[in-house]
Specification:
Order of helices and strands: HEHEEEEEEEEEEHEHEE
Number of strands: 14
Largest sheet: 7 strands, antiparallel
Oligomer: single chain
Number of domains: 1
């Protein structure tokens, strides 16, 4: 009796293992197909960024006096200073793309000090830097007290204007008051103008504190929400750390938001700031990224009218204590 029971149990276990193995084999092609579909979308989006960078090199904006120029942070875009693409991709990306790279800053080590060139965010009086920027995925939970920056790029045919709004996020899903954090008082004229190949860093290296410090101002705070707006025309707001009307921000979200997809460059997670990316920031918009320079870590596609205002919300999660 016991022998039959053991044999029967062994047969059941063997059958269960075979069944699980069969299920795994059946599920593997489905996962592979889904991953392949995501990779195909990311490759297409990458191509859009690469082509936009190439077109930006070929067709710089011109002023009425014949020199290259860009509209300032308060100057409306006109046909005279708009960038016209020299070519178009044969594959069409529906909607608008925004590239976001989150940079987590870690303290430099003795080994890092031996690297050349040193791609460091300089320390400020309140911190014990210097720090090295490293790429992280958009869904990364940050430890409280960690330093974070972000860089933003959009493959737009024409110049547009970038605005970043910050709100605290609480455990019940509610948000704090919205504050405009970019453009800042220290942002130079034209510093919030987005154009193909131009990357904008928030906060900028030249700001008094060139990073965000993720801290809880309330015990139930679980993170921050950064609202990224790209508009073909300047918004009726000022600069600096300004408190905005929540109803106005809600209206912008309703008008300019939409269904959003996100694709990560998983193989790039953990990689550091490159010489090209540092040169782009140091040049304050004069040096554009080329086709061979690194692409954004995370790309968002928003189902919105091409060339119009777009809005996305990027979460900065604080890990549980």
């Amino acid at each position: 009796m016991n022998r039959r029971l053991r044999v029967g149990t062994q047969l059941q276990v063997t059958g269960l293992v075979m069944l699980l193995s069969l299920c795994s084999l059946l599920m593997a092609p489905a996962r592979s197909a889904q991953e392949e579909q995501e990779d195909a979308a990311r490759r297409l989006w990458n191509k859009k960024f690469v082509e936009a960078r190439a077109d930006a090199k070929k067709t710089p904006a011109k002023s009425q006096t014949g020199g290259s120029t860009r509209p300032t942070a308060t100057q409306p875009k006109t046909e005279a200073n708009a960038v016209t693409p020299s070519g178009a991709t044969t594959e069409v990306v529906q909607g608008e793309l925004i590239g976001i790279t989150l940079w987590r800053l870690r303290a430099a080590t003795a080994r890092d000090d031996q690297s050349k060139p040193r791609l460091l965010v300089q320390k400020d009086a309140a911190a014990s830097g210097p720090y090295l920027p490293e790429r992280v995925a958009a869904d990364t939970p940050f430890k409280e007290g960690q330093f974070v920056r972000l860089s933003i790029e959009a493959p737009r045919e024409n110049d547009a204007y970038l605005y970043v709004i910050d709100r605290e996020v609480y455990a019940d899903g509610k948000m704090g008051d919205p504050y405009l954090i970019f453009p800042a008082q220290s942002t130079p004229s034209g510093g919030n103008v987005v154009t193909a190949g131009k990357v904008i860093y928030v906060p900028a290296q030249g700001d008094p504190i060139p990073y965000f410090t993720l801290t809880r101002n309330r015990g139930d705070q679980v993170g921050e929400s950064l609202t990224i707006i790209i508009s073909p025309q300047p918004l009726p707001v000022g600069v600096g750390l300004l408190k905005l009307d929540p109803a106005q921000v809600a209206e912008w979200e309703k008008q300019w938001g939409g269904p959003t997809e996100r694709r990560e460059a998983r193989s790039e997670v953990g990689k550091g700031w490159t010489v090209a990316e540092k040169e782009v920031e140091d040049s304050q918009g004069k040096r554009l990224l080329t086709q061979t320079d690194p692409l954004p870590q995370t790309i968002y596609r928003i189902a919105a009218k091409s060339g119009g205002p777009v809005l996305i919300n990027v979460p900065l999660r604080i890990a549980p204590q």
